[in-house]
């Protein structure tokens, strides 16, 4: 049986592949971020599969942040690739206590692209011709 974090991760992958949107929290000073629960030296940028889930986390130190949508192609090509280069993790559907799965960006990209293929959903990238090309590149980097 999957534990709650695995279920939340799977729900995130399925929802963002279906809606082609990811949600972050943004303020005048930038995007919400924190450090990893596992290692304070590692940064985490949280993203949500739903605006309402992001809004729940806009409290305490993030109370001035607002849910902001990020188109899926931009999330995959710009955010995830950049975060992988910076060795920053993705926070998946964090709750109001800022708890949730922390995932490697390459894994998140691979899982979303695999889901897009499984549901036969097209997506247009700037730097890749196809989902398959993107998967090949990500797989070679892992």
TrEMBL record:
InterPro entries: DUF2750. Pfam families: DUF2750 (PF11042). This is DUF2750 domain-containing protein. It comes from Mucilaginibacter glaciei. The lineage of its organism: Bacteria, Pseudomonadati, Bacteroidota, Sphingobacteriia, Sphingobacteriales.
């Amino acid at each position: 049986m999957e534990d709650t974090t695995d279920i939340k991760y799977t729900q995130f992958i399925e929802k963002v592949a279906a809606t082609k949107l990811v949600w972050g929290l943004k303020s005048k000073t930038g995007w919400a971020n924190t450090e990893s629960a596992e290692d304070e030296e590692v940064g985490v940028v949280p993203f949500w599969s739903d605006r309402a889930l992001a809004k729940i986390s806009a409290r305490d130190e993030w109370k001035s942040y607002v849910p902001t949508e990020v188109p899926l192609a931009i999330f995959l090509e710009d955010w995830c690739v950049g975060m992988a280069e910076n060795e920053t993790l993705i926070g998946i559907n964090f709750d109001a206590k800022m708890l949730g799965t922390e995932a490697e960006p390459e894994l998140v990209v691979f899982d979303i692209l695999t889901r897009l293929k499984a549901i036969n959903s097209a997506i247009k990238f700037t730097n890749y011709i196809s989902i398959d090309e993107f998967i090949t590149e990500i797989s070679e980097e892992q």
